[in-house]
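Entry:
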Amino acid sequence: FTEADQRHLLFRLSQAEAFETFLGRRYVGHKRFGIEGAESAIPIIDAIIESAADAGLAHVVMGMAHRGRLNVLANIMGKSYEEIFRQFEGYVSPDTIQGQGDVKYHLGAETMFTARSGTEIPVTLAANPSHLEAVDPVVVGMARAIQDGLEPHGSFGSLPLLIHGDAAFAGQGVVAETLNTSRIPGFRVGGTIHLVINNQVGYTTSPEQSRSGTYATEVAKMVQAPIFHVNGDDPEAVVRVARWAFEYRQAWNKDVVIDMVCYRRQGHNEGDEPSYTQPLMYKRIDQHPGVRQRYTETLMRRGDITAEQAESELEQFSDWLQVVLDTTRASAPAEPARSIRPTAYVADFEYLDTGVDRSTLDKIHDALDSYPEGFTPHPKLARQFATRRKMYESGEVDWGLAETLAYGSLLLERVPIRITGQDTRRGTFAHRHAVLVDNVNESEFTPLASLSDEQAPFWIYDSMLSEYAALGFEYGYSLINRAGLVAWEAQFGDFVNGAQIIIDQFLAAAEDKWNQKSGLVMLLPHGYEGQGPEHSSARIERFLILCAEGNMTIANATTSAQFFHLLRRQIKR
């Protein structure tokens, strides 16, 4: 560590501690889910983003829950302290509300982070609900969408950074589902860095009651991710580990985990009493000096800094926070802001021209039967495609062909398409066959990716056997790729309830809470075919409850033509 590194590290710790101390004194009892005891998380995040900037990466996408989020918003994302104080004071500015609003420790942010070298990198902190770890696949999907827009393709130029709690990392199944995406072709992002803020308690639950493994990070072994266990009271060690983790990710394009063992100085929130359930732990914590104090003492013993220098910086920062608060209170609005009564929603069924010239459809259809030289389709498929041609030439189109023609027409209009789901390339009902497999050597051919040299990309992938993370990934992807058609297909519509948290907290509510729009399409095939109650309903009644404000379109197509126009309408609207 150079002297400049030490100074910067102490500055970051001073920022983190002073911010929490100031809020704790000025807003007693207010929930802020502070980072006290885990202040070293700020230097870790800072070091990772700085490394990404200096390495020339294009973007960092972060996801985290409530713990320490306000500190990250202020001291990493650059959200103004005045804006944060306004939220504590209850001064709501209509100009700063994201949608109808949410609690301050759920809100997302975007910034341009400047490294000490002067290099800049865009950083996005994804908005998230209270459901722990639900944002994980969303962040990874956002990172993948950014990468798909970079050249050269597959360069892994955006970095997903996920900050977890120890109890949630071990307990929430979506963590394992998201880890499972890390090496799958359609979902790879070249490695996610995971930071586990391990404060050795989950709300009131002790580790021995919340997991069966020795470490909270055992689940990461499923993908052979290296796991660094580091003492949060040793800030130089945590920064070294942060740099190693980034270097590993860059070298091997794989996930890596940092388990920062620390503690939680307050209760789960600042109004909670933690000694009810962990009295011995909190007696020790009450006697334990903070990480900034310990690091200052270390630097003083080395002769690298004087006590006056260290305390002067902390006092200056605290004094400045008070000035900002005074300014905030002096500019308080004369009257509280009031929400405007929403106007009654009227469904928007404006006419959109979604038709396509017959010549364009002919071109697409002809390309479906144009195989590369030496390609041998399955004999049953060859007969099926011959029947399809006769049907098309007679003026009829079945469901599978209608869907294919819709995709092809959009691709020729330079609209990129991404479709994923279980068995999606073939289709659960053997109706799609978007990717053909050579019957002799198992080479693959995707007709819709070979329509024209000028067409948009067509990506279709079989997903892992998951609904929760799989849908969350595509939702995140759709937030970035706003110009494309992004679709997720359930194997059967009934299984969509495996992703209910993503549907409830993101798809149905994100626009209202955070003004966050998504054009994601969910395909939920179902029907009465004698396959029992688990294969005959797409839970349509649940979606009808969720769409009262025109926040989504529910369409039950009954003809192949309707399906064709619905897919095209999603882009044209």
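The chain has two domains: 35-264, 358-572.
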